[in-house]
From TrEMBL:
GO biological process, one term: recombinational repair
All copies of domain UvrD-like helicase C-terminal, residue ranges: 245-509
Gene Ontology molecular function terms on file: 3'-5' DNA helicase activity; ATP binding; DNA binding; hydrolase activity
Protein's name in the database: DNA 3'-5' helicase
Signal peptide: none
Family from the record: Belongs to the helicase family. UvrD subfamily.
Keyword annotations: ATP-binding, DNA-binding, Helicase, Hydrolase, Isomerase, Nucleotide-binding
Catalytic activity: ATP + H2O = ADP + phosphate + H(+); Couples ATP hydrolysis with the unwinding of duplex DNA by translocating in the 3'-5' direction
Segment of the intact protein contained: 512 to 1073 of 1073
Keyword DNA-binding: yes
UniProt superkingdom: Bacteria
Domain named UvrD-like helicase ATP-binding: residues: 10-244
Length: 562
């Protein structure tokens, strides 16, 4: 545990300190990428608890993804020690679930209600026809709720019961929301119920990184925070600690035409005169682009460790790069395959986040069923999952003609391994574990420490940072993305530009953008032009990279082992 008190604020810059130590009342922190939003948010919670006698159990910290919530929890543990456990940290959905569990009857639900999975929803829908009232009745009869209802039911409940509103306001007197630019209408309504207009609501975000409007998020809520909450204090953080000066300059110019932040400024805290420009590669084809990535990865990882580039350090960071320092980002999932293949052919380890759902893997449903029906087993979930897996593996080891559904013992063992990280995250909360399975928890293949190049979509890369970033397929039609029937209005293009901005600002030390002259899209091979978004960036910030030598063969890693 770190030293709390003033020493704690010493780790922040002047503006971060102003934000972290601001008095109660509504507080909006408008902060660009890499300005230390999470750092500021966690330090504020720690400061309030350590200095202003706020009780950790009065604090509620909300984010949008499970991974972000875990990151918050982890950083709070580091700052506050064991009492951090008393802070409620979660996603909007987990908050809704908590409220429903505490008010099951009032919400018209049965004890032990669960979230319907796709199959259950489809069955109920088929039976109900197009009668929405009937749909809900049938769902309830089976003790089920829809995922959306984790938010709409608590809102309805609070709207009709002022005393309940007061109770929650009394409990969570301090509310913190990260990535506030991605709030949607129901989440916003829930927040307004949980926080009075003059409440201690701290919202942090960056309107220029709003990239989820296709899911109903509305950056308008961010922009009108001061109208909704009385005497809101506004703090801006402008110092970027993440990216080198050329990367940051390119990013700021790229967002300028669509920026939602008046006088957008991002000042580089890192001022290394030797920092490389942004690499730009014009590939002839998708295969050529993939070769470029392989070649450059190979040079960076194989080369930097024995060549003394930048005399071995960039702004105090070691330049000995490993595969885990490198990310390849793209607009659409379908762009990953050629790059994964090319990297794999060169024996470069890769990890790509899988969007497969855990519950679709063989053996997972059997374990979930076993856990649900295991009578009165208490204790930590990882152990319970192992135990259930053991029982099932033994049972399925003897082939039977009954309902084992073709599950093999090795499927069950694999399922146990896949479920263990989720079980660990849920502690001993079985209902949370089962709800997360039902709501589509993914087979999360990304391990930040794994010695592998990471491949991610731009959406999935939000909030992350890497020393080296490749942004591939920066072409008109891909970024901004266009498909038959896609909206082409200004707002849609602006959101695509924000995605480009998110991509550029993931990079710390080296950034490469590339585009191919031909690509297979919409059923045929087409000519492609570079993205118009590139035109907003001063050409002097780019270094054109080697079309001269043609594709060189990467050194063979296996041969080098001999
Ligand atoms: P994004 O908008 O991309 O989510 P962010 O605002 O959340 O960015 P962080 O990820 O919290 O930014 O911080 C970016 C990097 O800068 C991190 O590596 C963080 O440790 C570092 N950093 C932030 N503030 C400081 C500081 N005062 N001194 C040194 N490093 C800092
Ligand atoms: Mg962040």
């Amino acid at each position: 545990m770190e030293e709390v008190g003033t020493g704690l604020l010493d780790r922040l810059d002047a503006m971060q300190r102003v934000a972290a130590s601001a008095p109660g009342g509504p507080l909006l922190i408008v902060a660009g990428p890499g300005t230390g939003k999470t750092r500021t948010l966690t330090h504020r919670i720690a400061y309030l608890c350590a200095e202003l006698n706020v009780f950790p159990e009065q604090c509620l910290a909300i984010t949008f993804t499970r991974r972000a919530a875990e990151e918050l929890r982890h950083r709070l543990d580091g700052l506050l020690g064991p009492v951090a456990e008393d802070v409620t940290v979660g996603t909007f959905h987990s908050l809704g679930l908590t409220i429903l569990r505490e008010n099951t009857q009032a919400a018209g639900l049965v004890e032990g209600f669960r979230i319907a999975d796709d199959a259950e929803r489809a069955a109920v829908r088929a039976e109900a026809g197009d009668d929405p009232a009937r749909y809900t009745t049938l769902l309830r009869k089976q003790g089920l709720v829809d995922l959306d209802e984790l938010l709409t039911l608590p809102v309805a409940l609070l709207l009709q019961d002022r005393r309940l509103v007061d109770r929650y306001r009394e409990r969570w007197r301090w509310i913190f929301v990260d990535e506030y630019q991605d709030v949607d209408a129901v989440q916003y309504e829930l927040l307004r119920l949980l926080s009075p207009p003059d409440g201690n609501l701290c919202a942090i975000g960056d309107p220029d990184q709003a990239i989820y409007s296709f899911r109903g998020a509305d950056v308008g809520y961010f922009l009108r925070f001061s109208q909704d909450f009385t005497d809101a204090r506004l703090v801006r953080l402008n110092r970027n600690y993440r990216s080198s000066a050329p990367i940051l300059a390119a990013a700021v110019q790229a967002i300028a035409p669509s920026s939602l932040v008046r006088g957008r400024r991002l000042d580089p805290a890192r001022l290394d005169p030797e920092a490389p420009l942004v690499g730009r590669y014009a590939a002839t084809s998708v295969a050529d682009e993939a070769d470029f990535v392989v070649r450059t990865v190979d040079e960076l990882v194989g080369g930097l460790s024995h060549r003394s580039l930048d005399s071995g350090r960039i702004d105090g960071r070691s330049t000995t790069l490993s595969f885990s320092d490198i990310a390849v980002l793209y607009r659409t999932d379908s762009q990953a395959a050629p790059i994964v293949d090319a990297l794999a052919r060169a024996n470069i380890p890769v990890q790509k986040r899988s969007h497969d759902r855990l519950r679709d893997r063989p053996g997972v449903t059997a374990i979930a069923r076993e856990l649900r029906h295991a009578p009165g087993v208490e204790g930590a979930l990882p152990a319970r999952v192992r135990l259930a897996g053991q029982v099932l593996a033994d049972r399925f080891a003897i082939p039977t003609l009954d309902g084992s559904g073709g599950i093999r013992p090795e499927d069950v063992r694999t399922a146990v391994d896949l479920l263990t990280p989720l079980a660990r995250r849920c502690g001993d909360d079985l209902e949370m574990f089962l709800s997360q399975l039902a709501t589509g928890a993914e087979v999360d293949a990304i391990d930040p420490r794994a010695e592998a190049v990471t491949l991610l979509t731009l959406h999935a890369a939000k909030g992350l940072e890497f020393p080296v970033v490749f942004l591939v397929g920066v072409e008109d039609g891909l970024l901004p993305l266009r498909w038959p029937g896609a909206p082409t209005d200004e707002a849609a293009v602006a959101e695509e530009r924000r995605l480009f901005f998110v991509g550029l600002t993931r990079a710390q030390d080296r950034l490469y953008v590339s585009h191919a002259a031909r690509r297979f899209r919409h059923g045929s091979e087409r000519d492609c032009r570079p993205s118009p978004f590139i035109d907003a960036v001063d050409p002097g910030l780019f270094e054109r990279l080697g079309d001269s030598a043609g594709p060189r063969r990467p050194k063979d890693r296996q041969l080098r082992l001999i």
